[in-house]
Amino acid sequence: MQKFLYKIDYVLQRFLTSLLFTFPIIKLVKKAYFFVRFKTTYIEATNNVVITNFDKPNQNSGITFLGKCVLSRNIEVDICGGIIMGKNVTISDHVTIQTHKHEYDGFSLYENKTSSSSLEIGDEVWVCNNVIITNSVNKIGKGAVIASGSIVTKDVEDYSIVAGVPAKHLKYRNKINYGKA
Q1: Model-level pTM?
Q2: HEC readout, the chain
Q3: pLDDT tens digits, residue range 10-61?
Q4: Mind listing the pLDDT tens digit for each residue in 65-108?
Q5: Residue 177 lies in a domain
Q6: Residue 91 belongs to what domain range?
Q7: Is residue 178 part of a domain?
Q8: Cβ(22)–Cβ(58) under 8 Å?
């Protein structure tokens, strides 16, 4: 039954984030669904965004939003291992975030054994276009930028700019000075 409910959730999210729901009045239906589903008003989702459990539910499954999060087009977020999203997170087009993996060593592939891990995304993080964040990542630090086309396989430090396949540290950003010129 649980798996069936997740499939309904998946289809509903695909429908509610279609182009039809970008019109101002109809957009309220999408906001209401995300509020009921995730208990927050911090989600700003545009087109074709799905946040769901792509594997068997466990005690860690879920997502917590600590502040506003903008999710652009064609995004899939797997919340199987649990995700904490910081304040003012921006996730650009065509991004996949995975928190579970399929085990293959010592098991029959038919058994479909999986494992999951949690992910924390810090405040002011920008994930650019066409990025894949794998389940081996547990933390993306505050103020980090992940360049377009990167595949992130390791934790990302605060204010770090990473790029590549697999993503590697390039340099650090200047820290944010709120209210100072």
Answers
A1: 0.87
A2: CHHHHHHHHHHHHHHHCCHHHHCHHHHHHHHHHHHHHHCCCCEEECCCEEEECCCCCCCCCCEEECCCEEECCCEEEECCCCEEECCCEEECCCCEECCEEECCCCCCHHHCCEEECCEEECCCCEECCCCEECCCCCEECCCCEECCCCEECCCECCCEEEECCCCEEEEECCCCCCCCC
A3: 888 888 888 777 778 888 888 888 899 889 889 988 888 999 887 666 677 8
A4: 999 999 999 999 999 889 999 999 999 999 999 998 877 788 77
A5: no
A6: 2-172
A7: no
A8: no
Q: Residue 94 catalytic? A: no
Tokens, residue 175: 């820290």
* Total number of domains constituting the chain: 1
Residue 78 lies inside a defined structural domain of this protein: yes
Which of 94, 100, 102, 169 is labelled catalytic?
102
